[in-house]
Structures are given as C-alpha cells and as structure tokens.
Amino acid sequence: LNKHSYLINLGLLFCLSVRWGAAQSRFLCSSSPEESKSRPSMLRHLTTKLKATGPITVAEYMREVLTNPVTGYYVRNNMLGPDGDFITSPEISQIFGELLGVWIISEWMGAGRPKQLQLVELGPGKGSLAGDVLRVLSQLRSVLGEASVSLHLVEVSPALSLLQAQNLTRSCSQEADSEDEPVYRRGETAAGLPVSWYRRLDDVPAGFSIFVAHEFFDALPIHKFQRTQKGWREVMVDIDPDKPDKLRFVVAPSPTLASSTLVQADERRDHVEVCAEGGVIVQQLSKRITEEGGAALIADYGHDGTKTDTFRGFKGHQLHDVLSSPGSADLTADVDFSYLRRMAGGGVACLGPVSQRTFLKNMGIDTRMQVLLRSCVDPTTRKQLISSYDMLTNPIKMGERFHFFSLLHHSRLAKPKKTEGLKLDKKKSPAPLPVAGFTDEKIWQ
Ligand code: SAH
Predict the structure, then answer these.
(1) Where does the record locate the signal sequence feature (predicted)?
(2) Does residue 352 have its Cβ closer than 6 Å to ligand 1?
(3) Is-cis flag, bond preceding 90, omega within 30?
(4) Fewest CB atoms within 10 A around its CB: which of 24, 59, 68, 390?
(5) Exposed e or buried b for every residue in 249-258, given b needs 16+ CB within 10 A?
(6) What's the gap in Å between 121 CA and the centre of ligand 1?
(7) 101 and 151 Cβ atoms separated by less than 8 Å
C-alpha cells in the first residue's frame, strides 16, 4: 500500500460525490439599511469613558468598538457579503471550505483516526465555512467510519450565532436558559451532528480537536507601540481637545504595562503592533493540542514580524478611518505569525505561514476546479466559478495576501524510528502522512 493512497482515494471519492451548489445564494446578504446606518451611541459611550478614565489603549478601543455586548460592531451587525463591509474566502467560493474539510479529515487520519473528532471553529461568521466542511465530512462518512463528530463554535456575537444556527441546523437550535451557561446555544445539523456555541475557547470541552480560525485573529485587539527617544511608548486613543466629538491618537508620556512587557528586547522596527489576546488564544490551542492531540489551522492576512502600521477600518468594502464613527466599520490588523509562533512555544510543531495560493494549490484546487467545470454547462455559473477561483488564488488578489499557519502535535511530524532488538521484527514504524497543504505532495492525482 502506497503511503499516500489514503489521501488520493479520499480525493477521488470526494470528487465524485460533491456537486456545485447554489453559488449565488451566498451573495444574498441581508443587512437591512437600518442596521448599516452608523449609530452615535458607541462614540458617546467612548467619549464618556475617556472623560472619566483618560486615554485608553488601542487594544481597549478595538475591543470596545468590535465586541462591546450592547453596541459592538460584531454584536449587532451582519457585516459579511457584498452588501456588508467585507467579503471573505468562504463567502466567495464553496471550494475554499471543501478543501479545508479535506484537510481536517487528512489530519484526523494522520493522528491515527481517533474515535472522537471535535471540530472547533473560532469566529464562524455566517457559518458558511463550517457548512462546506460538514458537507465534505458527510460525503466522506465512509472514511470517517464510526468516529463521532461534533461541531463547536466560538462566537461572541449573539446575532451571528443565530445566523450560523439558521445556516447549519435549519433553525433546530435552542438558546441556553441562563447567561452563565458555557454553552449558550445548542443545535443539531440535518445529518444529526451536535452543534454547540461558546463565547470563549476556554469553554470548549477537552478532547481530540481540529481547530479552524479564518479571519478571526485579525479581529482581535492589538496594542500599538512607537519607538521614541525615551524608549518604547504605547499609542493611546483620546478625545481631540479641539473637537470634542472627535477621537485622536496620542503617545503615552511614560511606559505602560504593555509597552514594558510586549515589545521584544531586540525589536528593530520603529512601530509595532502586538495582539496579546491572539497570543493567549494560541497558547491555549497549543496546550490543548499537546494534551489531547489534534491540530489548528489559522488562515488570515498577515506577515512574519516585518510590518509596522497595519491597523485599518473597512466600511462598505472601502477603507475607513479607524477613529471616525466607531462601531459602524470593521477594525482589523494584520496577523503577526512570528508572534503566534513564539507564543505557541515548543509543545507543538508549527508549519507555515504559506500563502493561500500555495496552500490551495497543494490541496488540489486546480483538480477540483476542473471537475466542477466539467460538470457545469451554465455559462454564468462557469464564469462565476472561474472568477472566484481567480479571487482566491491570484497573487495580486487574495492569493498572496492571505496565509495559512498550522499548529500540530509533535507526533504528526515525527521521523520514523528504526526498531531495534528483536531480529524477527525488521519493520520500520510507518512514515507519517504528509501534512496536506503545506507540502506539495498532492492530495489528488
Ligand atoms: N470566519 C468567518 C468570519 C470572519 S469575521 C469568515 O471567514 O467568513 C470575524 C468573526 O469572529 C465573526 O464571526 C465575529 O463575530 C467573531 N469574533 C470577533 N471577535 C471575537 C472574539 N473575541 N471571540 C469570539 N469571536 C469573535
């Protein structure tokens, strides 16, 4: 048996059984004009706070603007899609989530096919990625055998959790009775898989898990630091003294706790952004993977510790000033993968970042496209398939801007050991399956 044959078979099975769905329906985004209007209450809330406490860190500003339980951007908006503020790869093409589904199964196989598989998604948006992954899992049910699969979604936004429930459970979900429950919503997919919603990763039960985070880390709060003649200083947000309803950036006159702990001693840039919350989440992922097995796949736009000022806003698909009409626009910053690698520590193996183009090509996106195009005669759908492929993989579109990064249990990459001792036992332990997407060993041939 060739060591890759499982993966190849997997690809063939899947090619035969999945068909192109109603692509356009993804693009019917339902954010009402009422919702997309900016509301002044976030600015009022912030100026009241700033008057009482003085300047706040950029991280605190970002946290308030995005996830404040009453007025936060993610809490009350449906921001994804052509009518929203931005569009993401899983919303552009179903192929994206399908290939991630294949990655998940191949990592589950690489881990020795554990009996339980928890699929955990951080920041699932509309639930489209999870839906595409689940479709692949159900097409490949025969590969998964008796393994029991469950879906766990970490989502701060009650509004988005409802949308995810509608998409994934055909409205068969129920909210928890009390706000203190770690699982705040429960449901079941049409195929009978249990789905649970949590506010924080900490609340997800222990067990063999594959974690996926797409465009999640870029939404977490960053601290910003500026090199000055007196050393590193934190950038803060304050009220503009000339215009009391406007905000501005100021540089803290003396060190803050963050500026004295989060900047590397040998840092060479003059301005850095550090996402401490993202660092904590990666530490938690790393600990879980070390203790329970599994893997994490993090996909986002980002850099490897080289960029400086990447903090920006998006509104109606246009760049938006991060300090104006807070709460009406998405705020985001590039993910620093070198920081995530550092925070992951030695307990896990890290792979990547590799560009989205490389990852998707290694996962066999070209073969998948050919299969879909062969079975698709409608010219409009064909055109749409080709343009979404181009959007995902073209280096000047999303192909080189987005990167894939993975945390793996060390055993996944362990070199085969020669068995010593007994003469009868001349077998080597089998070489680990290649980690799909990160090496150019093709899943589909
Ligand atoms: N992964 C989706 C959505 C990206 S938008 C996609 O690619 O289409 C970011 C998602 O993360 C949203 O679902 C948002 O509500 C969620 N989110 C943002 N901050 C979060 C936090 N601190 N904890 C949990 N979820 C968060």
Answers:
(1) 1-25
(2) no
(3) no
(4) 24
(5) bbebeebbeb
(6) 10
(7) no
